[in-house]
Specification:
single chain; Rossmann fold; 2 domains; eight-stranded mixed β-sheet; four-stranded mixed β-sheet; 23% strand; binds adenosine-5'-triphosphate; binds magnesium ion
Length: 347
């Protein structure tokens, strides 16, 4: 492919912090050499740097460039800077509690619980933020009805920070805000980790009582790196009540209890604890077995902080971007109850 063709592909990469202009127009393409593209950043701390690197790579792959390389150069220093940004925890200075919402395996309702817990805590009067750390499958924009909105970047004391979106009294941040709709995010390991850290460490969180971090499913490298570099105080583990889920919860718990990490687990949330049909709101069907969560909590020595029913309205409200915790139905009460116990537990 010629340099001109590559540049044409790069015109598809837009900088959300710069009025959506493309990177060619912004003069950010430093050089093109075969399948290697070097992006120039005027500042070390462009909060969207990792996102732009990922988006550039994705644009090249989509354009048919095999195994493209994207490097960066910081103009102020006039020296090539490899990936691996520098972060500090300054923007978390006024955040009292940072809690990871985790699970051993995917699809148990971790994001649903995180989003609803955030809304419920806000309803109880706490200052709350939520960072969606699931860089591979961000679901916070959809669940909060903030899809398609774009956070702005702001310079504060010489540092560029991303301003979180605010809705339902909660500050939300997700890599999903920087991706085109329906477009999968293509990351290599270290890039994913950096993008994730930016979503937490380069955000204007301000003063918060609680910052919840919706962790990606599983217990991989990205979790370890997150726990090592972000001062996550401890975890809330979400599970479903089946017998077979115990092993996954054990794995999730082991990650936090690993001697190199060593963070407390504040509690367990049993999601889909029972099924209540919409037409019979007073009935409870224990389709995954009764008291599975309580037994699990006891086995693992973790307090059971909440039990959330499986009800159609929880999924529907999630899909509609209006979390169930904001409503008046019994499922809202389950989340408010969880929020009250969670807040009490953390003092
Ligand atoms: N208590 C519930 N009642 C009804 N539907 C639920 C409940 N909890 C979660 N769901 C639905 O189940 C699906 C998966 O939930 P969610 O995305 O929160 O899981 P997750 O653990 O975050 O998944 P992932 O591992 O992909 O991040 C969603 O469609 C959600 O609306
Ligand atoms: Mg999720």
């Amino acid at each position: 492919m010629t340099e001109k063709e590559i540049l044409e592909l790069l015109r598809n990469v837009r900088h959300p912090g710069k009025g959506d202009k493309d990177i060619v127009e912004l003069g950010m393409v430093h050089s093109v050499d075969g399948s290697k593209v070097v992006l120039a950043f005027p500042k070390r701390r462009d909060p969207l740097a990792e996102y732009l690197i990922g988006a550039t790579r994705a644009a090249l792959i989509r354009g048919g460039v095999k195994d493209p390389k994207v490097e960066t150069v910081v103009l102020e220093e006039a020296a090539p800077k490899k990936k691996g940004m520098e972060f500090d925890t300054e923007c978390l200075r006024n955040v009292r509690h940072i809690v990871g919402v985790a699970s051993g395996k995917g699809g148990v309702g971790k994001s649903t619980v995180a989003v609803n817990l955030a809304c419920a805590l806000a309803r109880l009067g706490y200052r709350v933020g939520l960072a969606d750390a699931d860089v591979y499958g961000p679901s916070v924009p959809l669940m909060t009805g903030t899809e398609g909105m774009q956070p702005m970047a702001e310079e504060i004391d010489g540092r560029e920070l991303i301003v979180p979106l605010e809705k339902y009294g909660v500050k939300w941040m997700s890599i999903g805000y920087f991706a085109e709709r329906g477009q999968a995010l293509i990351w290599r390991g270290p890039m994913a980790t950096n993008a994730l850290k930016q979503m937490i460490l380069q955000v204007k969180w301000g003063t918060l009582d609680f910052l919840l971090v919706d962790m990606p499913p599983g217990t991989g490298d990205i979790h370890i790196s997150l726990l090592q570099e972000v001062p996550v105080e401890g975890a809330l583990i979400v599970t479903t009540p089946q017998e077979v889920a115990l092993a996954d919860v054990e794995k999730g718990a082991a990650m936090f209890r690993n001697p190199g990490i060593n963070r407390p687990i504040f509690g367990l949330v049993e999601n889909m604890a029972w099924f209540t049909p919409a037409e019979h709101p007073d009935e409870k069907y224990y389709i995954f077995g009764r008291d599975g969560g309580a037994r699990m909590a006891e086995d693992l020595g973790i307090e059971l902080l909440g039990r959330i029913p499986l009800v159609q309205s929880i999924r529907e409200s999630g899909d509609a971007g209006e979390p169930a915790a904001l409503g008046t139905r019994p499922d809202a009460a389950a989340f408010l109850d969880l929020a009250a116990r969670f807040a009490e537990k953390l003092g």
